[in-house]
Amino acid sequence: MYKCKEDGTDKKMILEDLSAFNIKDNTIYYSKYKKGLFKCNLDGKNIMKISDDDTYSINLVENCIYYYMGGNNIIKMKLDGTSRERI
User: Fold this and answer.
1) Where residue 64 falls among pLDDT bands split at 50, 70, 90?
2) Cβ neighbours of residue 85 under 8 Å, at least 6 residues apart?
């Protein structure tokens, strides 16, 4: 994942090897294949692991994250990684 100015200049890498990502309230929520689900600041700093799950897609709704793990495994949990449940 890179960030740059609107005209495409000043390109800088902030994260690498992402499987899926979504952004809410200046926080990036992202997954890395076989490494888990993480969140960090928009500059890629203050990385925090919030789940060990392999994740293929991420959706953010209000204060929850919904993610797909394959098969019939759709998970809902709070943005801080608590209250995890299969739906």
Assistant:
1) very high
2) 75, 76, 77
